[in-house]
Design a protein that fits this description.
Blueprint: E1 2-13, H1 21-24, E2 32-40, E3 45-53, H2 58-67, E4 78-81, E5 92-93, H3 103-108, H4 116-138
Parallel strand pairs: 1-4, 4-5
Antiparallel strand pairs: 1-2, 2-3
Length: 139
């Protein structure tokens, strides 16, 4: 298994006309537009899909990206890493839900992973750190 890319969806606050505000309102109440981005291991963006409403679900944005004419493609033999907002499916790997995940949670405890799910989530979190840093630099 080779993990080549990581993807992430991020919201940016915007101004929209009053009648369109409901579709751009996030579950936290902000008015924003979403951008799906794919970053390689060298922190270079290899795919961007901006413009989705803030209320759009992660899976809906990803499905649109995959089904576009020149959309997101997973190279044969590679996987994209996504957060828990996405589903595990062909070419995409997400963490186990309800299992310790974030690196700061691992730092709080001195014990090693207790099972394969914790180990997988720890390694997934380390690999996804690349995209977290990349988006952090953009903001």
């Amino acid at each position: 298994m080779t993990v080549k890319f990581d993807f992430w969806r991020s919201g940016y606050t915007i101004s929209v006309v009053y009648k369109e505000k409901p579709s751009y309102r996030t579950r936290k109440g902000n008015i924003s537009v979403n951008m799906l981005g794919v970053v390689d291991i060298d922190t270079k963006f290899v795919y961007l899909l901006p413009g989705w409403q803030g209320s759009a679900a992660d899976s809906r944005v990803l499905r649109d990206a995959v089904h576009r004419l020149n959309g997101l493609r997973v190279p044969t033999g590679y996987y994209y890493l996504g957060d828990a907002g996405y589903m595990n499916c062909e070419g995409f790997l997400t963490p186990y839900r309800s299992v310790r995940y974030h690196l700061d949670k691992w730092a709080e405890v001195t014990r090693a992973p207790q099972n394969v799910k914790e180990y997988y989530n720890m390694m997934h979190s380390k690999a996804r750190n690349v995209i977290e840093r990349t988006w952090g630099c953009m903001k």
